[in-house]
Amino acid sequence: MTKKTYSRRGFLVKSAIGGTALAALGSFGLILHKDQTWVESEPYKRLSTSPAGTAVVVYSRSGNTLVAAKEFARLQDADLFIIKAPEYPQTFSGQMKASGDASDKKMNTEIIHPPIDISPYDPVVLCSPVWWYRPAVPMWAFINNHEFSQQSVFLLMTGNSGYETSYIEEFAELVRARNGRFTGFRFIERGRAFWQLSSSELRDEVRILVDSHPEFVSKGA
Ligand SMILES: Cc1cc2nc3c(=O)[nH]c(=O)nc-3n(C[C@H](O)[C@H](O)[C@H](O)COP(=O)(O)O)c2cc1C
Which residue's CA is minimally distant from atom 28 of ligand 1? Predict the structure, then answer.
């Protein structure tokens, strides 16, 4: 009797461990799959013809931050500049490289984008995914390659779960070293593998952000 109870408990424990391991594996697989799947969004086109006051600069590896950046640009009637980073393609090895470089806290990588004359814009809004609790490596590279002239610089990040404030402060220091005035940041949490914001919910979050905190993006904030 005792033996039977023991083995049933053993079976339950093993099942629970097996189930948890399977769930963890499934969620890891889903994250890998999502990071390798591009999220489509409508092309962005500025409607007005007067020169834009705001520049939105975005790096996005799987399309989500681009959704947010386009919405931000639309609400602010901004010019949108898209950065590409060839070292981090949407492949498994690209993902491993992104992961390795981010955890090594790299601040530089090759980036490709149309020439950007930052000087006429104020504010400059930077949009980046979070990689290992900090802005993604290509956004650091962008700052390293540019010089500001005391414009406001605002950082918008998307991520699954979280960021680390000390890394944002380090990023802000880099902006200041390049003569920009770092005015703040916001993080949009998309949620983990199974419960993530849809693109339309992500746009809603951007609208809430812009409506409720105009000071973050206004000139001279
Ligand atoms: C290498 C790597 C590391 C990541 N680290 C984090 C993290 O520390 N915190 C977080 O919230 N999300 C993290 N994520 C998830 C992305 O930030 C999130 O999916 C983001 O919204 C993707 O944006 P994108 O589609 O524009 O590339 C990481 C993703 C990758 C590829």
Answer: 131
